[in-house]
Batch of 2 targets.
Target 1
Amino acid sequence: MTKVSIIGATGYAGQELVRLLCGHPKVEIKGLGTQNYKGQPFSDVYPNFRGIVDLPCQGADDPQLIAESDVIFLAMPHGQSVSLAQTAVEQGKKVIGLGADFRLRDPKVYEEWYQTKAAPAEQLAKAVYGLPEVNRQVISQCSLLANPGCYPTTVILALGPLLKEKAIDPAWLIIDSKSGVSGAGRGTTLTTHYCEVNEDFKAYGVPRHRHTPEIEQELSKLAGQEVQVSFTPHLIPATRGMLSTIYTVPLAGINAGKIAEIYQAYYGKEPFIRLLPVGEVPHTKWVSGTNYCDLAYSLDPRTGRLTIFSAIDNLVKGAAGQAVQNMNIMLGLEETLGLPRVAIYP
Amino acid sequence: MTKVSIIGATGYAGQELVRLLCGHPKVEIKGLGTQNYKGQPFSDVYPNFRGIVDLPCQGADDPQLIAESDVIFLAMPHGQSVSLAQTAVEQGKKVIGLGADFRLRDPKVYEEWYQTKAAPAEQLAKAVYGLPEVNRQVISQCSLLANPGCYPTTVILALGPLLKEKAIDPAWLIIDSKSGVSGAGRGTTLTTHYCEVNEDFKAYGVPRHRHTPEIEQELSKLAGQEVQVSFTPHLIPATRGMLSTIYTVPLAGINAGKIAEIYQAYYGKEPFIRLLPVGEVPHTKWVSGTNYCDLAYSLDPRTGRLTIFSAIDNLVKGAAGQAVQNMNIMLGLEETLGLPRVAIYP
Amino acid sequence: MTKVSIIGATGYAGQELVRLLCGHPKVEIKGLGTQNYKGQPFSDVYPNFRGIVDLPCQGADDPQLIAESDVIFLAMPHGQSVSLAQTAVEQGKKVIGLGADFRLRDPKVYEEWYQTKAAPAEQLAKAVYGLPEVNRQVISQCSLLANPGCYPTTVILALGPLLKEKAIDPAWLIIDSKSGVSGAGRGTTLTTHYCEVNEDFKAYGVPRHRHTPEIEQELSKLAGQEVQVSFTPHLIPATRGMLSTIYTVPLAGINAGKIAEIYQAYYGKEPFIRLLPVGEVPHTKWVSGTNYCDLAYSLDPRTGRLTIFSAIDNLVKGAAGQAVQNMNIMLGLEETLGLPRVAIYP
Amino acid sequence: MTKVSIIGATGYAGQELVRLLCGHPKVEIKGLGTQNYKGQPFSDVYPNFRGIVDLPCQGADDPQLIAESDVIFLAMPHGQSVSLAQTAVEQGKKVIGLGADFRLRDPKVYEEWYQTKAAPAEQLAKAVYGLPEVNRQVISQCSLLANPGCYPTTVILALGPLLKEKAIDPAWLIIDSKSGVSGAGRGTTLTTHYCEVNEDFKAYGVPRHRHTPEIEQELSKLAGQEVQVSFTPHLIPATRGMLSTIYTVPLAGINAGKIAEIYQAYYGKEPFIRLLPVGEVPHTKWVSGTNYCDLAYSLDPRTGRLTIFSAIDNLVKGAAGQAVQNMNIMLGLEETLGLPRVAIYP
């Protein structure tokens, strides 16, 4: 059994890690680090875990968390993972960061979009961007993993193969994304107040949401050229679920058959990507609680434009589930271990 | 007091007309026509009206409905308004159709998109497309009014002035719309089952939603050239509310100031359009229950693209409220009469 | 036009007062007092009011709020209204307190349940409990009005007539109440976080919710004897709406006809109480946004027990609407002025 | 591997069985019987199962369903299981009925409350009421199991031990229950239309909900005397979750300690019952997707009354999960096999 600690265990992504890892057959949860609940049983903070994970929380800075585990998950607000990651890597541990700290290669870009100091260059140089469907090989050998953001996961999975195969125009990438509220975390803000969200719908972060440079960095790498996107996130009055609707233009000679072929080639054997039959569109509910990304597209014969739909559960494939998938790869385990496949429905 | 009848009064748009008209100071509701509730008090079908509108429903084809009223609202499923409208116009009544029957000028286009027989050409020729902010003058003189669809209302109000003023590229109009469930009507279908909608989000009608030709017809007229759009509607897990997020490209020489100026010129005095301050985006909740359309835009300096946000209550400005606004204009009344302005919040 | 100020205008009850009063034909809103938004336009805090109430907020302690108005609404957290009320009454103003400060006659009971110092005895002596259907006469002559709590409103309206007419056993009053989230206010707490409320249901305040002594005080007065209740509130995953399901036992000789007769005698002419037909039960949605209380009951022939259902909109009849109804009475206006009757549906 | 068939697999309870059974380590799903989807892959009807359960549905009356399986789950509307159960039992299969057909001992009671013909007396005589915490022993030996209704499960688990130990007054059992919408099934009715349920709350089935006689039958057996209850169900605007709030009176000499002791004695070792610490109340969200029943109580020192709270997921412990638990017992497997324990949160 591999020993794991989760630092930042009482945020929504953290507790989702606990849910997945406490059912993982090859893992033992050794420690749960938190900022506010030191000494309290985890099941006091999340009573759905009563009788299942009653482990007392430790302080986020408790050195035992790192010392006694083999894999350290860091699910802290950005800016708070850098020194913890440093310590853990120095002790030879595997580190999986769920925050933004290690995702952007260029510290200047990070500092511009996040308005905080970036991680040291040598740390960034070591970190691997953990989207298994794109760079599984590198992930398997890394010890510092930057788990992707939720929006970037939907977008890169949708556009990556088409950009890499030069099937679409990289100058026309318009991304209209929608996310459930849990993506905003458990912090108590007016924006997440039930009465403000329920029966409402709105965009936010216009026009500079922080996931934009992450999307552009990864798409540029795949396209082999600088790529800019228009990215607008919206808030769905729902707890979970994320859907990106992406508008682009196929390059000359690319028809629906070719697009199907490309997706099939890239994802036909992926355990967590489902290519929907022609004519269907993904529902967020179909992937809720699971690690799936459901993909579909529609090539409009009238306008010649291509619309791609990409749905995930923002807390699973968009955070904790993908982190566990990455851990499985890093540890040489079967990639699907401990990851739920059937969405709870309805 | 003007006498009005509502045929199709027990659908969601119909009952919203009843709500607005029973509080209208210059109107008396004379008759309520329905297909399924003949003889039952209206307040049995919608008990929120108990003690307020207890009028018994009549059959939709009851000739008294037309004979005894001055204004006839037709809130029937498409295809069922043609002969009723004919009869009413012949009797010299004002007719306001909330369905799609009279919106499209070209019967061939109607038949292609709706798969039903179009209204007779002479009837279509008489019908006026009732978007007051665009063609108030013609509305004031017509006797057969085609009340706009909900999605087209959000889109035409957002794009009309910019296309007319040649401020944006008509070749790049990408419309990502989101609607509450009430737009689907009161019919009992799996698509509107609580458990299927709640905690879900999805697109639908891809890529051929019926509001597409209506949007294109009106935008083409305003642009002075044929315009094609990419239009993708989505379903919000909420009862009311509609938001369109529209992506386009400003033409050379058009900056944010110019766009503000255009909107100000067109809408600065409109009673039901609110131009939000720079940096804000509309929330559907801010217009819920009211006849407002809230508009905002963001010109991204990085990409040069323009994103426009347009929010309405799909049952009010998107249906019944706009119909009452049109009635006020047609009757020479103050345009805002009987139309609620303060959204219920939260 | 009567001049009114609302102190505590940016809480949910406060802004609901603004909604109702800005549409009231005999009232002019003169000032809006707040604790946190001094100097900001009210429509910045609640953008649904943009273009309608753009008045800048004043500090809650701004003496102009009281000096320049005839009626002062105090919608502050409990404990903060006492000296404001004092000042206003001394200046000869009409004061309507929406908080709990003046509801309980006995300062000791107040202090036991609220754990704060009670208002001075002479102030409590002047205050009138403002449930119009019970004590309209006294309300019309008072200058310090204690607006009832939301739960007590549902319960006293349901049980008052039956207790007064000795129709039910005062030893068996079991009240199972359910409230929408807006009753908890706009404060940002974990309890009102969207993700914690959505898809959840639970009781709270067990077994000592603060509305218990208020219910018992008023029921005892009506019953002419000391009455104790079992009261358990629950949280509905909805923004608005309150339903109390009340279980009791008819006294000997009381049958369904007699109960109908009593309700009819007390409420047959009440403008804001609707007695539902036998066999129907109230839906919170039927009264949403209105000042109605919908009442129904069921006498079970099997068990002999009586179940009463009482539904209101917690922010209207349960707070702001009832306050306006009281203001109308205190000012000698028509009691229904400015109070919406048709619930927005669906 | 035990072979199982689910007849009525495309209702909500049926598909929940599929979810649980397709992850069960000792079971193989052999057939899925449906009334309306014959020949279609199950994952067409529930696309969350795409790639997981793509088995084509069979007609509900396909004899292979019974012939080729060892355990037959009948998740049909009541009245349609009788002859299927007959056939299956005759072939020596284990039958688990999720409908009401075999729950009531007395055919007259069944016919009075369900207004349909009861199952034959000899079938009823064989059927065992499957609440494992009450009669595990009998379940382990039966071949025709009547899986309990959702409401009765919450109530019998809450009251059973107290009635059996003569700790409460059987004359005072008042049950106020609340259920999520999924309990109403996937049928398309106005009652389950999103717009009618969302932001609404109401009672239903007053005063004769069909679960009443089932509750009374089982409580009477446990109490050793005839017991009558007041039972009022309500609809929560949520998909899943059920909470019963139960009001009763302790008998002389019974204090909180004694109640705790009784619950501990009966449930301390039960794998699917969690006794919450004093002062906590169950949230439906804490058990969502799991087979737990969370129990708490509050003895009010003021009134002397006892309030008990009992929460389950209506589709799991209230239907499919309990059915699987029963199957495990009937097959001599570990009772918790295949039953999820961690609720998805938030």
Target 2
Amino acid sequence: MALRHLTSINDLTNEEIERIFLLAEDFLEDLGDRDLPARIGRSVDACAGAVMATVFYEPSTRTRLSFESAMCRLGGKVISSADPAASSTAKGETLADTARIVSAYADVIVLRHPLEGAARLAAQYSTVPVINGGDGAHEHPTQALCDLFTIQREKGALQNLNVALFGDLKNSRTIHSLAYALARFGANLLLMPAPGMELPGSVEHRLHGEFDYAPLNLGGNLPDGVTKVYGLNDAVVNSAIDVLYLTRFQKERWTDTKRHYPVVNRELVAAPCFRQSLVMHALPRAGELDPAFDSDPRAAYFRQASYGVPIRMALISLLLNHGAGGSLERFVGGFRATARSTLHKSGTLCSNFNCISHVEGRVHRERLAIKPERPRCLYCDHEILQSPGE
Amino acid sequence: MALRHLTSINDLTNEEIERIFLLAEDFLEDLGDRDLPARIGRSVDACAGAVMATVFYEPSTRTRLSFESAMCRLGGKVISSADPAASSTAKGETLADTARIVSAYADVIVLRHPLEGAARLAAQYSTVPVINGGDGAHEHPTQALCDLFTIQREKGALQNLNVALFGDLKNSRTIHSLAYALARFGANLLLMPAPGMELPGSVEHRLHGEFDYAPLNLGGNLPDGVTKVYGLNDAVVNSAIDVLYLTRFQKERWTDTKRHYPVVNRELVAAPCFRQSLVMHALPRAGELDPAFDSDPRAAYFRQASYGVPIRMALISLLLNHGAGGSLERFVGGFRATARSTLHKSGTLCSNFNCISHVEGRVHRERLAIKPERPRCLYCDHEILQSPGE
Amino acid sequence: MALRHLTSINDLTNEEIERIFLLAEDFLEDLGDRDLPARIGRSVDACAGAVMATVFYEPSTRTRLSFESAMCRLGGKVISSADPAASSTAKGETLADTARIVSAYADVIVLRHPLEGAARLAAQYSTVPVINGGDGAHEHPTQALCDLFTIQREKGALQNLNVALFGDLKNSRTIHSLAYALARFGANLLLMPAPGMELPGSVEHRLHGEFDYAPLNLGGNLPDGVTKVYGLNDAVVNSAIDVLYLTRFQKERWTDTKRHYPVVNRELVAAPCFRQSLVMHALPRAGELDPAFDSDPRAAYFRQASYGVPIRMALISLLLNHGAGGSLERFVGGFRATARSTLHKSGTLCSNFNCISHVEGRVHRERLAIKPERPRCLYCDHEILQSPGE
């Protein structure tokens, strides 16, 4: 039975994502609504006796706590290493060694790491499932699952929806994962970047090359600020925005002193095209989303956050019960299997200097391998610009 | 069913405090004494399936660990964010947003925060009960509950007891909470301040204005160092000290280079008036309480610390079962209800610069509201000195 | 019933160590192999309802996580204080007070501390069992248990084995604990120190004085780098190395700029004497052990790490059930009992400046006592060089 990991949203098929959503709905019902007395004793036993390790090399409150809450609600237990300075890494240990050791202590590992591709490297060495809790600017697949679930639950479906991506489209790992996932489910993407923070060319290239997405003609009634619309060639784009998805303003990345970062507030969403819009944000926010809007029924971000626990419950319970019958049987083929078969010693060094392969590659004396059929790094998915050794 | 919080000792009626004490006695019996073999398996199931979040923005070992131990003994589970630097706050998140998000992950939140009134602000936004684990110099209500419980359990009652408050009466949040609580139960307060560390005028004012306490005549046999005695007007103060309550010496606040901070040791408590005194201390201590006294039966501070777990078990289990019948039904009226009805936009800014309202008030674009009938800040209870807008 | 602690490997008799190993084998079987579906629900209930506190004053990932995983697998719960800066120690609390307080919250305490003898001082004040998770350069007894278990499990026995100790024999607390333990079980010790990092004279002295170990004649076929062989006088040392035990390279302690720290790699272990050698390492490693060797069946270090959980499960469950019948009844006599009877006020100050007695001794106004029959410090086991007061 092949081990299953979640290092990228693309480790899951569309059918598997839908199975996760169905199970999450069950858990939402099991946990009950927020009426307190009804909550007591509402955890389930799906993972009783199991232990999760959260290994976080970067600050996080909500991702770590929501994973830990999910494991508690499943009847399992949690061990945690959340202080990078207090870890064996401070003694010079490689991530490969840490993954091997921690997989002797736990039944599933959740990893956050500043380097891209870190989750895949850990998955290569772990003997238990590894879940990517964010690896540099690469992927944050469980955030993408929460986002998709919120849209599907509140809009009924994903196909043909108009989803506006607003703000910093350049640096947000959440936006990149979400764009691919929306493309796989047939939603149209309306790009509303902050000036100088456009979606990277490599992401656009991949939307085109892998998901058959192309720029569509802009309709005359689209809101100001939409610079491009991507969709399937036969998609019909009307002017109503179904989802307005904001990214967090990262002050240190904003160098345009003449202009302010765009803000979403009551005035902006008063335009007719936003009348039925879900307003979403992965949070935390830092000024780009006015709290005065919080009481508006279109404000979906706190509901979006609250789905984090049932979605992660569903994911953990399916990964841990994989192979015991009925769970993630139809998985496309985990990273491990793929990686093993395509690893070759005379590969090319990844051109992304934030890729884990530049650190651990040296330690393990393996140069980076690539998937022969697609010139992208096996760990961080970055396009290989030069491949002198091929 | 209104949500119940514990942000101040005054959120609880005397009857509710006594109900907590009764339940804590039950838990003490359930857990057994310290004989180890008998301890195994002695937890209870009152909160099985429930999840507590401890969110600590300030260092703490004993408060956090005793809350977490209490939840474990109740059969519940714990998620924790105890490293301020690793939190979403480092990314600029408001406490209001953190409270909303964490209340989607947990059934009860314990908060420690450096700003006064923080617990009340969190309670305003949380959808689950918030327990104040210490907010700046404002309140530390569960410490006050442990202190009261210790006195009642070891002295049989609280009314008419002579309680001497010793040391730094100026800066200790524990002393302020305890003084109000003792006044509500009719104990006499004998003030024994270190030089320059007298009880603040605002606390004396409130003892007088809200609890009908007045300075009493000093009896001739009172110990040296007693500067004032507060009690109900008809109280009879004899010369026997029932409780000697010490505060921790905070070196950075002691500027009197000519004198030493007063120390409690065997010599001091050899005086006749201390013959039956319980000696109490919230701990940790730092030189003001001689370890040579530890083996004296009057030394109650380690027993006082050990009551932290059963008291917190009782509190958590009553808060979580509130509304399920039989628990905190007769609560005077939580902060939420009160706050909502008295919030008005054109309020007065709090004159306490350590009040949470100066940070979050700006973010939420609401100026501070006050309770019209009593000119005190809604968050930190600080007296409003100037109210230009009224 | 005397309370049992584990502050030193010498707190356990050989028979007790073997009982721990038998129970660990049971737990290994209970937990099953690493096939995931079979793992779910495989925890046991030996410590259901019990709470463990991990109190770590120094960075650690693997020791803390393996203890916490062990407690989870036993059905118990964990509270943790792993950030020294966030602890009451930052407020000036003594370890004695911390031990007393935490023992009111938990049923067993695991302590890591930078000062030697810290675990013994904590055990003196705790009302629950204290387990030493590493105290300065003094001892790390649970690591020694894991090491011994690995050797016995994979080699069938300990007596008469040839165990080569390789690398930094001077500064490693693990090596010191392991050397005594191996001597107690009759293994021969082959010293292969890095230049300038020989085994301390005091350890050699103790091997001789307490365990009747003497330097043996070196056989002609021993590998290069063996400087001494210790064994029982009648031991027969052949040239086959049964175990090659490496220590971590600590860069800051290596001052020999002319030479490199010795490295274990495929070339080194190709020598005939290493043909059947288990290669062991407590990990983390930092360059002294080539990852290219990882796939060799003689590489035992990841299996060694994975035994950490069942060994600690066995230890915790025996300590917590001690006195309930059938557990550690035949214990030689815990530290507490011994210590109490030999403490005398007019003792000698320990000459080891990393000993806890130099900090806490002053606070408690007791000068260091020594065991009269053996001039070693009661806390850190360091030899007393001068004893002017005797």
